[in-house]
Design brief:
It is built from eight helices and eleven strands. By secondary structure, it is of the alpha/beta class. The protein folds into three domains: about 60 residues, 2-Layer Sandwich (Alpha-Beta Plaits), CATH 3.30.70.20; about 60 residues, no CATH class; about 150 residues, Dna Topoisomerase Vi A Subunit, Chain: A, domain 2 (3-Layer(aba) Sandwich), CATH 3.40.1360. The chain is globular, with a radius of gyration of 20 Å.
Length: about 280
């Protein structure tokens, strides 16, 4: 069957192994000093490892591949311990893969293994709807409505943010909050300079932020933006930058991603002055 799986550029890979902790399915192993995809059936194609490779050696391609097999994956995951099982379940949940999550939980029940998400949820109390094993800042969350819980009377202007995380290094470009959406890709300083950012530019859109001057791994950013365009099927992309020269690098990353994408998407450029004024708005 033809489907999306990762591919690893052997020439770029230096065997550092940073991709392995970000693949709870166990599809990647270091063999002979290089990262290898050990089985198509282990790779779900959701791209959790994207952006974690400092050499940008990992990309997603669509090709003939053995079907992904959640039952085999769970058998492999359980050998690695309950922390890995938990990370895998959270990974499926964060990407909205409910069918695969149900298959994974069925395997746990058949093996007599308790669901670690339910155990932690019970221990934490009913206020916690999900648990997370990694850094709290990278936990995937979707808010039921604009405001993220911050729009109550007396709390000031409500936020229009509908999901977390938003930093491009942390987001998965295949996460459900980006699929088919209008996306804002903003330089880090934009929201500080632009007082009406939430109501005039973020409302009704998905967000990602990045700093083209200070962030590392920007080749990984190009791949993530390409996946947003090709695989998440975003509707439009608004690139918001400051007037300072270094900020133009964010638009350059988008142009590199767009030139390598097979799907076309409209891109709007918004340039914000350091005093908070809009200097330019145009489709590019």
């Amino acid at each position: 069957m033809k489907r999306k799986v990762i591919t690893i550029d052997d020439e770029k890979c230096n065997g550092c192994g940073l991709c392995i902790p970000n693949c709870p399915e166990g599809a990647i192993r270091i063999i002979d000093g290089k990262a290898r995809l050990v089985g198509d059936y282990l790779c779900d194609g959701l791209g959790a490892c994207l952006g974690h490779c400092p050499e940008s050696a990992i990309t997603i391609e669509e090709r003939e591949a053995e079907p992904y097999d959640e039952r085999k994956v769970m058998t492999n995951v359980m050998k690695q311990g309950m922390n890995v099982v938990k990370a895998h379940l959270e990974h499926l949940d964060a990407h909205g893969e409910t069918d695969l999550l149900d298959q994974a939980l069925t395997v746990l029940r058949e093996k007599g293994v308790k669901n670690p998400l339910e155990e932690c949820k019970s221990a934490a109390g009913p206020a916690h709807e999900r648990t997370h094993t990694g850094c709290p800042g990278s936990e995937a969350r979707s808010f039921s409505s604009a405001g993220g819980g911050n729009g109550e009377a007396g709390s000031g202007m409500p936020s229009q943010l509908t999901h977390w995380p938003v930093q491009l290094h942390l987001v998965s470009p295949l996460a459900s909050q980006y699929k088919g959406k209008d996306v804002v890709l903003a330089a880090d300083c934009v929201a500080y300079a632009l007082g009406n950012f939430h109501n005039d530019y973020l409302k009704g859109k998905a967000l990602a932020i990045a700093c083209p001057k200070l962030d590392g791994g920007q080749d990984g950013y190009v791949e993530k933006i390409r996946v947003l365009i090709n695989d998440s099927g975003i509707n439009t992309l608004m690139v918001m930058i400051m007037e300072v020269p270094c900020c133009r690098g964010l638009l350059a990353l988008v142009e590199r991603a767009r030139s390598g994408a097979t799907r076309k998407v409209q891109v709007k450029l918004v340039v914000v002055g350091t005093g908070g004024e809009i200097l330019k708005e145009e489709w590019v």
